[in-house]
Backbone:
């Protein structure tokens, strides 16, 4: 039995789109006005979406239920898995007492909250996005800022907003890789076009963040540091995306901006150290100095996290891990049953890649770090159980949000909204980022948004005589500013920032910034399409995304090298701390 999606149930694009928007508008209403808890808003939105899918779009009840279940499973793995392991790694660092050393280290660089936000939320968060993605950057950086003494709302909010700049190149460039696969536009061309849009946002984002935290006047007081952070990040992001492709811009820009800012702060300091007016006083003795061994030990969980996630992101390693640690199956009753408007069946294959998932890399980092930071595995297991209890409502929220995304997509409701936007004609380049923004709001993923709307963006642009790489990259760029208000991202940030149950407060904090940045990106894309068309990269428009089979032996070699690096790091941590104990 097959069921064909109905895109325009009322035979009127505007009316169909208006109905399709109802579940999305409900989420805005529930979180903005009713201040409803995230999981409650998501559950009601699911019921509303299922009702519209069945009664207006004619979707069979069985398919609606199966689609919702499929989305919930995806929410549990891999999305919730990343969040669980990221928070677990952070929790063992705190319970072991090592985070006190990290706090002191950050305070020794600067005790100023404005500059700590730039180092952790903006630069370190971008680095984590480039390696792990899928919620880990916000989960880790928000928890770090709260532990440093930040107001929880500001810690979670600015981490969400800071996470916009790197999302397009997250997880070793997966969002752009997927956009290339669905549109047959070369990956390098999309990377270059995106890399000629987002650096403009990256350039102003540090100033924007500090203004949010402390106000314009206090931001001007640290303008030199803001310029160093923004210019170094934007320049490195531009160069890496245009010369190297989508895999490393976040990693290079994140590390580069951290180094530039730390070096600059050794030479320049703000006149006054700014902190939140009502924050708890931090008793950090700045006269205490920690040795290299102590600092290495304290940072070892995050050093291991970095090394392992980068290694896990390498294609040969991923292939080896999938060959021995992946279970996949066609989702019963749903796979190739739904037919899209082009007549193609939609595959629904659930992949449980329990070894190659980014969350597993983070888990291994935590397991290796447990003895290095002075804990026993029995204590580590108890901390893991406590982490699961801590995240139970967040996991429920994430699963329900992804369930909502799947029923919206499979029923054709999302495509109805997209069809209305494509009817804007010559103004479509302005609305192209809106489509990406909407896709990320619904799915929580720039990758998923590109898979959903990439082809539509390319074909619409071609019919209007616009280079399709402009609108496809606009989908990528617009999606990044939707990440900060996606219910799944809100749930992750709220949990990490000790705001569980207050998702509506966090949503209200970020939503206006999302709209402002979306307008900024839309204007840039409109100018690129008609005024500054010389900025569009030259590429082979008949090119296709090519995937070549690799020799798995290369993956095993990489894994051996990775093991060697980890052993070396562990040896350094053990040796330096043993030496310190002997000396004392």
Residues:
């Amino acid at each position: 039995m097959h069921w064909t999606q109905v895109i325009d149930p009322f035979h009127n694009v505007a009316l169909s789109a208006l109905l399709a928007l109802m579940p999305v508008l409900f989420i805005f209403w529930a979180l903005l006005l009713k201040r409803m808890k995230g999981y409650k808003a998501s559950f009601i939105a699911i019921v509303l979406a299922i009702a519209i899918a069945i009664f207006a779009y004619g979707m069979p009840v069985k398919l609606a239920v199966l689609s919702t279940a499929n989305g919930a499973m995806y929410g549990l793995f891999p999305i919730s898995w990343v969040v669980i392991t990221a928070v677990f790694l952070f929790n063992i660092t705190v319970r072991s007492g090592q985070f006190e050393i990290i706090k002191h280290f950050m305070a020794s660089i600067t005790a100023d909250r404005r500059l700590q936000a730039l180092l952790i939320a903006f630069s370190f968060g971008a680095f984590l996005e480039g390696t792990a993605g899928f919620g880990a950057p916000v989960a880790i950086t928000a928890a770090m800022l709260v532990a440093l003494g930040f107001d929880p709302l500001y810690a979670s909010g600015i981490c969400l907003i800071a996470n916009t700049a790197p999302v397009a190149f997250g997880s070793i460039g997966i969002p752009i890789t997927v956009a290339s696969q669905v549109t047959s536009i070369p990956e390098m061309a999309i990377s270059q076009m995106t890399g000629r849009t987002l650096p403009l946002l990256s350039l102003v984002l540090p100033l924007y963040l500090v203004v949010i935290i402390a106000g314009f006047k206090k931001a001007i007081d640290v303008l030199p540091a803001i310029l160093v952070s923004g210019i170094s990040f934007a320049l490195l992001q531009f160069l890496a995306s245009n010369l190297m492709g989508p895999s490393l811009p976040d990693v290079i820009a994140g590390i580069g901006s951290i180094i530039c800012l730390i070096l600059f702060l050794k030479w320049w300091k703000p006149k006054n150290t700014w902190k939140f007016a009502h924050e708890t006083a931090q008793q950090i003795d700045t006269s205490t100095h920690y040795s290299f061994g102590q600092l290495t030990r304290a940072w070892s969980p995050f050093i291991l996290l970095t090394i392992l996630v980068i290694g896990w992101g390498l294609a040969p390693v991923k292939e080896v891990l999938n060959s021995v640690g992946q279970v996949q199956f066609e989702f019963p009753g749903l796979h190739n049953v739904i037919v899209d408007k082009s007549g193609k069946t939609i595959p629904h294959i659930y992949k449980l890649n329990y070894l190659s998932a980014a969350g597993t890399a983070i888990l291994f980092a935590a397991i290796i770090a447990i003895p290095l930071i002075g804990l026993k595995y029995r204590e580590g297991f108890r901390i893991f159980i406590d982490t699961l209890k801590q995240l139970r409502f967040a996991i429920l929220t994430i699963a329900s949000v992804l369930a909502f995304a799947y029923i919206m997509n499979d029923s054709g409701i999302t495509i109805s909204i997209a069809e209305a936007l494509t009817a804007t004609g010559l103004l479509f380049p302005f609305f192209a980022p809106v489509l990406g923004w909407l896709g990320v709001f619904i799915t929580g993923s720039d990758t998923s948004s590109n898979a959903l709307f990439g082809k539509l963006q390319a074909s619409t642009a071609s019919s209007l005589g616009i280079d399709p790489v402009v609108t496809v990259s606009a989908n990528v760029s617009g999606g990044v500013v939707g990440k900060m208000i996606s219910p799944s991202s809100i749930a992750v940030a709220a949990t990490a920032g000790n705001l569980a149950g207050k998702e509506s407060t966090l949503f209200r904090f970020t939503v206006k910034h999302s709209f402002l940045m979306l307008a900024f990106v839309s204007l840039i894309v409109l100018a690129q399409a008609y005024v500054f068309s010389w900025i569009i990269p030259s590429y082979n428009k008949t090119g296709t995304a090519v995937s070549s089979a690799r020799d798995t032996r290369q993956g095993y070699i990489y894994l051996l090298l990775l093991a060697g690096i980890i052993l070396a790091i562990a040896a350094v941590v053990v040796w330096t701390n043993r030496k310190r104990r002997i000396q004392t």
